[in-house]
C-alpha cells in the first residue's frame, strides 16, 4: 500500500529546516564578536568543559596520531588595552588523556610514558605576553610536564567574546598552537621511532569573574 504524503506538513517541515540552518550561524555571530575591542578587562577563570588540548605526533612515520587532554583549571588576567600585562596560569590533569583506543590510553598513563601516579598534572605559567597583529599574541611561559619544567612558546589568536546565552556570563575564547619535544620532558619511550616533536593545539575558554 503506497504511503500517503501530507503535502502541507512536508512543506512546513522543509521550511522549518531551512530556517534552522540559516538562523543558527547568524545567531552565533550575534552571540560572540571576533573584535578585540569587545573583550572586557578583568580576571577570567577557565571554563573546563569547552577547553581542551589536542596533541599530535608521528607514529613510526606512518601517521600523525592525535589525542586530547581536558579538565583544565586556572586563571587568565586580561586587559585588551594592555595585552603585554596579561597573565595565564593553567593546570590540567594528565589522567584525562584520551585517544581512540582505551588500551593505549591506559598505557600512556603508566610509568614508561606520563606516569600520572607520580606526575598527575601538567602546568603552564606565562612569563611574557607579546601582542601580535590585531587579534593575536605570543605567549612565552614555563611548562611543567612529567616533573620537568621547560620554556614553551604558544602563538594565540582571539576566537571571540560575548555573553553566554545560557549562563549569562561574559566569555572569551582563544586558540593557541605550539610545539614541544617530549624527550626534553623525560618522556623518551620509543624515541626516535615514535616522534619527538609534539604539536599542541589548544582551545581555551574563559569566564569573566564578577
Properties at a glance:
Lipid/polyisoprenoid-bd_YceI; 47% strand; 2 helices; 8-stranded antiparallel β-barrel; 210 residues; Polyisoprenoid-binding protein YceI; alpha+beta; TTHA0802/YceI-like_sf; signal; elongated; 15% helix; Lipocalin
Task: Summarize the structure in words.
With 210 residues, this protein is an alpha+beta fold. It has one domain: Lipocalin (Beta Barrel). Helices cover 15% and strands 47% of the residues. The chain contains two helices and eleven strands, in the order αββββββαβββββ. The protein has helices spanning 7-31, 102-108; strands at 32-33, 42-46, 52-59, 63-70, 73-78, 87-93, 121-132, 136-145, 148-163, 170-181, 197-208. Strands 2-5-6-7-8-9-10-11 form an eight-stranded antiparallel beta barrel. The radius of gyration is 21 Å and the shape is elongated. Keywords: Signal. Residues 43-207 form the Lipid/polyisoprenoid-binding YceI-like domain. Residues 1-28 form the signal peptide. Pfam families: YceI.
Amino acid at each position: 500500500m503506497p504511503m500517503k504524503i501530507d503535502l502541507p506538513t512536508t512543506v512546513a517541515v522543509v521550511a522549518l529546516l531551512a530556517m534552522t540552518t540559516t538562523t543558527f550561524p547568524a545567531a552565533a555571530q550575534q552571540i560572540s564578536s571576533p573584535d578585540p575591542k569587545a573583550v572586557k578587562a578583568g580576571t577570567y577563570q577557565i571554563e573546563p568543559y569547552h577547553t581542551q588540548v589536542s596533541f599530535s605526533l608521528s607514529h613510526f612515520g606512518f601517521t600523525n596520531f592525535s589525542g586530547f587532554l581536558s579538565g583544565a583549571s586556572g586563571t587568565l588576567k586580561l586587559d585588551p588595552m594592555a595585552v603585554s600585562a596579561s597573565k595565564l596560569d593553567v593546570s590540567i590533569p594528565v589522567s584525562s588523556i584520551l585517544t581512540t583506543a582505551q588500551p593505549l590510553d591506559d598505557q600512556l598513563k603508566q610509568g614508561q610514558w606520563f606516569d600520572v601516579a607520580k606526575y598527575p598534572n601538567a602546568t603552564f605559567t606565562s612569563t611574557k605576553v607579546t601582542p601580535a597583529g590585531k587579534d593575536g599574541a605570543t605567549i612565552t611561559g614555563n611548562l611543567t610536564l612529567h616533573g620537568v619544567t621547560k620554556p614553551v612558546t604558544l602563538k594565540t589568536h582571539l576566537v571571540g567574546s560575548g555573553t553566554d546565552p545560557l549562563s549569562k556570563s561574559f566569555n572569551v575564547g582563544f586558540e593557541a598552537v605550539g610545539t614541544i619535544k617530549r624527550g626534553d620532558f623525560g618522556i623518551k619511550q620509543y624515541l626516535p621511532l615514535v616522534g619527538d616533536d609534539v604539536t599542541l593545539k589548544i582551545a581555551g575558554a574563559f569566564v569573566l569573574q564578577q
